[in-house]
């Protein structure tokens, strides 16, 4: 029993295992967490301090050369599912000096001239960091599949390439936390409508969002296919119901906390003579 | 009279103008701010919300293609003066999606093969972002001068190159906020001693810190020379007394707020037909 209000290990509760069906997940549920919005806010605030300290310890270890460990959070979702809120309210609680955030857009011409993993590799977090991918290489098997931007055979090749790539990344010491934020189409409609109703949100709306929305079932199929092919032992997927923003934030924070606790970073020992340095400093 | 507790425009109060003498600045003073640590903490918290909203507006404008404006905070200081605290407590209050932070270390071999501004140029903030340089091109005229890493003639050339470079950056729409955090050698001694006394701080201490500390007067001369040569109209220096951490954080936040208020970013108008989109969305 976790002390943070979870009924068990959130990694297991939310993990995509064999036989997982996305269609059976309720986007309005709060699996594993018995609390409500109010307790959720309190637990989130407490978790921020814990996450900050764990990240600082990891950073310290890496600077001392004691570890090559890092954490990589991969965020995928339909528009308006709350990726931005995760970055702001979960990742934003950590010292910016320990965060390496990349928002992947449609690939540039230069990027398209390379393999789809080329630009991803360049943005992997260095030891000591929490890397965050807002969208990722999975776009190449999601929109890539739905919009037929690549032939089916190439999509198939990519699943394998992703698994091989992620296995290497994991072997190098990076904990990969893959999260799909799952909202319902009704919830998305409300959120997009709010963007149309509020002048301070107009810039977040894009008519293309509705075009993508029309392809909802195709996207869910593409997610299911990606889960079937790329939820591996070393880099499993987690589906986080996200109609309740507070739950989604708490759940992603919990997954990050568990990843860092698993690393269990320690303050490194001094690699200099502490008493001698005290004397040198005092005399200076 | 600012509503944020400042007696005047912090840009002017802290600016390095003709005749400025670093040796005359009291690192323990709180120029322009009459409050104390307690009111300072309150004003800092209020400023975080203001800074967040201004940055989001700027980001929105830039995404709409309405502006090329950005802000660049350049932080220089002796060791332990509080650069990290500024990043964590001032910059850390802003959405990570709007921050581009670079911590410059000793240049790599590849970087040394290029002009000293080469690596700097690559890290300039894109429109809509607050860029933060934790150390910067000024290292090349500070440690560069003190440690004679380059001949005096080359240091002289660099001042001019910096002024030309920064004038171009400013002309492209980036507000440059250059800050030296100024602590006393006695305050540094206490802070370094604390790092030696606390096991969770040992990793932050480096015996080389004392070597640099021995060169304090030479560093102050190098800062004075840099101020004399590179505090320009478009990119003035600000010296922020930093023995009081709370004051330094508040002052840097105030300088950022003023820079953003000066840009005065507005929520961009929709570039689509709002009513038509509402209908499309409702029907989807």
Q: What's the helix count of chain A?
A: 12
Uncertain segments of chain A are none
Mean residue pLDDT of chain A: 96
- Give the strand tally of chain A: 5
Largest interface (CB within 8 Å) is between: A-B, 44 and 43 residues
Terminal CA distance of chain A: 52 Å
Helical/strand content category of chain A: alpha/beta
What global shape of chain A is seen?
globular
Percent range of helical residues of chain A: 40-55%
What is the topology, as strand order, of the major beta sheet of chain A? Answer: 2-3-1-4-5
Largest sheet descriptor of chain A:
5 strands, parallel
Radius of gyration of chain A from the CA trace?
20 Å
Strand content of chain A: 5-15%
What quaternary form is this?
homodimer
Helix and strand sequence of chain A:
HHEHEHHEHHEHHHEHH
In short:
2 copies of one chain form a homodimer. The first copy, chain A, is an alpha/beta fold and 284 residues long.
Task: Please explain how this structure is put together.
- Two copies of one chain form a homodimer.
- Chain A is an alpha/beta fold.
- The first copy, chain A, has twelve helices and five strands.
- Chain A has helices at residues 10-14, 37-63, 83-89, 109-112, 118-121, 143-146, 152-171, 185-197, 207-213, 216-230, 245-263, 274-283, and strands spanning 70-77, 99-103, 130-134, 174-182, 237-241.
- In chain A, strands 2-3-1-4-5 form a five-stranded parallel β-sheet, sandwiched between helices.
- The N and C termini of chain A lie far apart (52 Å).
- The mean pLDDT of chain A is 96.
- The interface between A and B is large, with 44 and 43 residues.
